Amino acid sequence: MKKTPTGTAVGVEDPYDHAGVCDHVTGDGKCRYAFEHGEHDPEFAAERRAGEFACPVAEDEWEWADCPHYRCRQHDRECARCGLEERRQAHADERPLLEEHHLAYDDAEDVGHEITVFLCRWCHAKVHGSWARIDDDVNPDPEAIAAAEGRRSAEQSELSFESAAERFDGED
Predict the structure, then answer these.
(1) Residues 165 and 119 in one domain
(2) What is the pTM of this model?
(3) Are residues 16 and 27 in the same domain?
(4) Where does residue 81 rank: exposed (0-12), middle (13-18), buried (19+ CB within 10 A)?
(5) What is the four-CA torsion angle of 105, 111, 117, 118, rounded to 10 degrees?
(6) Position 8 confidence tier, pLDDT thresholds 50, 70, 90
């Protein structure tokens, strides 16, 4: 299993099995990185410009792992392992239920791609602390469900309507 530089497991054998479309690819198959950040890699940008900024992966010339600027961050706000959905509270300093989990790290074999998914705090701890895998078929931890339900209850109480007459009834 792939490891972090400190030796803890990341929960996958191959990060690219869990990666999706590059964050830099537009809907029509163009490379946004070469267009917007060409000064960071002028040679790469010049090659893309010559091809009207076409993404080599979208053109079936490369695999994602071949692109030096590939980046894929999960945008679904749910745990990639157990499916727990994020419930954020506005104006609250509570720790989020979900955390970003990096599947790829800079090392001798890696080109430095950023591949991240969201894991709930409980799955994140299990993946880094044991041999738990991202693709395990698991249900949310009971503590995770309780935390999400607690936030859901707080949301519901905020949405309830109470008229001024009800709020101030009996106050003189």
Answers:
(1) yes
(2) 0.78
(3) no
(4) buried
(5) 40
(6) confident
